[in-house]
Amino acid sequence: MNFPKFLIFSQGNRIVKIFSFEQFEEYSRMGQFYMHQAFRVNTHADRLYINDLLGMDKNHFIDEQRYEAIRNEMIQTLKNLV
After folding, report:
1. Which residues, other chains included, contact 31 with Cβ-Cβ below 8 Å and sequence gap of 6+?
2. Using 50, 70 and 90 to split pLDDT, how confident is the model at 30?
3. 23-30 and 61-62: which strand pairing?
4. What is the residue-wise DSSP string for 2-60?
5. What is the pLDDT of residue 81?
6. What value does the CA radius of gyration of the chain take, rounded to a whole number of Å?
7. Per-residue pLDDT averaged across 46-67, rounded?
8. What are the φ and ψ backbone dihedral angles of 16, each rounded to 5 degrees?
C-alpha cells in the first residue's frame, strides 16, 4: 500500500493523514475550536483504528492538495482567533 493517505469527514470538520500503518495525524474543528493530534501506534486498538480508516468508503479519501488546503485554512483560522 502506498502512503500517505488522506481522508475527510463531517463536511471537512475532520481530516486525517495516514503516514503508515504505524503513524497518523488528525485535524478537527468543532465550532471555533481546532485540534491537532499526532498519533504513533502503540496498542492493538490503534492498529485496528488505522485499518478501519484505510477500509473506509472511497468517498472519504481526498488528494493531498485538498488536504493541505483544508489544513492550512484550519491553521490560519486558529491563528486569527488567538
Report:
1. none
2. confident
3. unpaired
4. -S-EEEEEGGGTEEEEEEETTEEEEEEEETTEEEEEEEE--SHHHHHHHHHHHTS-GGG
5. 62
6. 13
7. 94
8. -135, 135
| Model confidence, pTM | 0.87
* Range 51-74 average pLDDT: 93
Cell for 72?
A: 492550512
The set of residues, in sequence order, having a beta carbon less than 8 Å from that of 71 and lying 6+ positions away, is 15, 27
Residues 62/8, Cβ–Cβ less than 8 Å: yes
Query: Is residue 66 classed as helix, strand or coil in its secondary structure?
Result: helix
Distance CA 14, CA 24 (A): 13
pLDDT at 78 over 80: no
Cell digits for 18? Answer: 495516514
Triad 73, 69, 9: Cα angle to 5°:
85
CB atoms within 10 A of CB 20: 13
